[in-house]
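User: Hi! Is it possible to get a structure for several chains at once, not just one? Here's what I have:
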Amino acid sequence: MESVVVAGVGMTEFGRFPGRTPASLAQEAVRAALVDAGVDPKAVQAAFCGTVFAGPGAGQRALKDLGLVGLPIVNVENACASSSSAVMEGSAWIRAGMAEVVLCVGVESLTRNAGALGPDEDDLFGSMGVVWPAVYGLKARRHMTEYGITAEQLALVAVKNRRHAALNPRAQFRTPITVEEVLASRPICEPLTLLQCCPPSDGASAIVLMTEERARRADTGGRPMVRLAGSAMRSGRFADQAEKGENVTVLTARLAYERAGVGPGDVDACEVHDAFTIGEILHYEALGFCEAGEGGRYVETGKSGLGGGGVVVNPGGGLLSRGHPLGATGGAQLAELTWQLRGEAGDRQVAGARVAVAHTMGGTVYELESNVCAVHVLTV
Amino acid sequence: MESVVVAGVGMTEFGRFPGRTPASLAQEAVRAALVDAGVDPKAVQAAFCGTVFAGPGAGQRALKDLGLVGLPIVNVENACASSSSAVMEGSAWIRAGMAEVVLCVGVESLTRNAGALGPDEDDLFGSMGVVWPAVYGLKARRHMTEYGITAEQLALVAVKNRRHAALNPRAQFRTPITVEEVLASRPICEPLTLLQCCPPSDGASAIVLMTEERARRADTGGRPMVRLAGSAMRSGRFADQAEKGENVTVLTARLAYERAGVGPGDVDACEVHDAFTIGEILHYEALGFCEAGEGGRYVETGKSGLGGGGVVVNPGGGLLSRGHPLGATGGAQLAELTWQLRGEAGDRQVAGARVAVAHTMGGTVYELESNVCAVHVLTV
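Assistant: Yes, the chains can be modeled jointly so their relative placement is included. Here is the combined structure:
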């Protein structure tokens, strides 16, 4: 099976850009990724575009103006894991020998496509109010009951990710915040407050994947080669550890670690799906960075922050502060981790990072049993 | 590279089913395909769901009630080529060694999601009235001017495909029609009349792909093994031969034929994208069944009809008469051709069929330069 290399990455700033089409956002990210990979658009042999709401033909519409015509282009939708899934498809084509250079794009404009976010006619849960903030609120409450996580510990996730985002010029929110401000912000779904919920965002990300052989021929100025060392995707139950049932993150990460030949103790930097503060806590536990129930203490002792001595989680600011343009998020995670592994992350560099993990979840509330989880392990 | 086998196929009847959800349609097709493949749902290691308008998480929503949880599920959108693209992704996973048994589903309910069909705010062409019927009408007019195709020859495509559909219990329209009826039906975009345009439809299709090694172990009662012998996908210009430019069908078919080691002269049966009668004519020419400009005579001499001595085109009735539930169409083509190659097509059997081609186009009018074309070559 072909080894897969992350040869180039790019992303737009995330934020609210009412004047920009999804195509324009995607084009900016793609241009950056192609330049970063040192390849001409003509070198791209297949492209995959992850988006939820940018509409039919989003990839074709974005790529044609860059001269990307004549190649296979496939649009991929997997909720918040859409661009993580696009990367999975791109890596499958490379591993199958169907292409040597593939482009994976992620794009979303929730400003322009916000109307699409409401519950549909089949969504009994949504129509009763059991939407994502409610689900995460219930999970937070359960963690409090089972393990005693405190409101302050939850808030610290938002504070830490904002501290990281303040060092990331592409993040949507860059002004540092305090625990007091987080707790005093508008209640959304108790115990979660506004600053504990990810924002609606617009933005795009792009990843160029290559065979190792092809990547060796590219001129990358001697920078380290980042490998997509292990990837896994599963559908399953978005459970927390307390529920003892199948937890889709535990099972997916186990596969990805195994494929990459690493374990949780090897991970230096990780981007997790912190759509809400409690999400990050649950994922610390599911990814094996700490024991079940210890997530609150993990953030409180500073271990998941830059320079904290543990796994640095969401060095780019996470969904909470970098922003969450659904289809673009997975690619943005991989872009951030690629910069980290190359030592190009500037003020938010995780010192000596060699192994990094990107984790996304996706799905609809009424399909909690079949949420998508995608985990990619990158190494240098 | 792993050889890929079409191990099981299934589809619903196509038609208007206002009372059925996309999930219910997909489930019916999937159950049929799994039974046909002789495998339990638990054997499926990855699934791909092609749909345009069934909404986020369509695959996950449909598959969970069949116990298909815990596997990777990816939703794929490529306009009318969505399920052809899902099959491409499934075959990539098999060729990459990432799965031995994959399920590719296609589903659409245009009855329930018809609102989604209007032009969007970026669609300058659509808002001016240059929608698909208009584009095909112009192409028909051009073919008349360049090559002298007649209105009667165009109408014969609809008559032939209805004759085939009359033999297909899963087709939406099964009452035979005459050239006079076709020409007398309501004008849509001159010279195209109503009966020369595919209908909006609901339905689903499913295809089970396996490695050859795994397929050999399945109990198939000694029926012939159908191979996905060559597949290709490209974006590009939906041009006709007269335009002399890049024609996406010509280029895609060339690749697929080459990969399968066959040529147009080897093809016994073919399902092409006859969204409008002129489409089928243009595709005869682009796929190499006749010379440029000879498509009208090809249908007039009966060569593309059952028992006509040429390549039997759209033995299942085509988009025109089997119906066109966008995301389900590509899979339905592959189901039909699999039945043909196994000799299971009943009254519409193409005698001695050994090589078959499925062809879909997809895209938005304002992206004529980056239409998707997918061609799959099946052999026994």
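Residues 141 and 363 of chain B are 21 Å apart (CA to CA). The two ends of chain B are 19 Å apart (CA to CA).

User: Great, thank you!
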